[in-house]
Amino acid sequence: MNQFGGYVAAPFRSRIHNIRLYLLLPTLSGARLGPVHFVVIREQGPGWDRRAVMRDQQLWPEHRDFINQLAEDRLLVLAAPIGELSTSAAATIDPTAAVGDDLTYRALLILDTENEHQVATILTDDPWSKSVVLETRTVYRWEILVGDLA
Full-prediction pTM beyond 0.85? Predict the structure, then answer.
């Protein structure tokens, strides 16, 4: 095991993908290493039109303006649609295309907020949240250990 500030990296091998990962476990000292962000996975909700591309969804201009304002306010570090892998080939499916009946539209956001409550409060104001075009599926606390987003 390797020491990283207030953490110990414990090797772990994923059985699903057969890759080596490291679990970062806090040591007794518990010192923070870097900035803490929140990773948010949002997914299409009942208001999502499966036949329409991302930019043709209802309230797209309002959603786009909301996201851009979060970035200007330095609350949003990055945001992007994330694509699924095709089951028939190793190609990635265009995450901005219409999803049809077989796929799920998802977006990844990295927010720079104080806590999970602030994440929820911010995303409640998104026009796509209000019209249930997107719903928040998961929120993860993310502490950067190596590198930075600047």
Answer: no
Could you read off the pLDDT of 78-116 as tens digits, one per residue? 999 987 665 555 455 676 777 777 788 899 999 999 899
The C-alpha atoms of residue 9 and residue 27 are separated, in whole angstroms, by: 10
- How far, in Å, CA of 117 to CA of 115, rounded? 5
Helix (H) or strand (E) holding 9: strand 7-13
Q: What angle do CA 125, 116, 37 make, to 5 degrees?
A: 100
Contacts of 141 (CB under 8 A, 6+ apart): 36, 38, 116
Task: Say if residues 58 and 47 touch (Cβ distance below 8 Å).
Answer: yes
Question: Could you read off the pLDDT of 132-145 as tens digits, one per residue?
Answer: 999 999 999 998 88
Q: 3-state class of 72 per DSSP?
A: helix
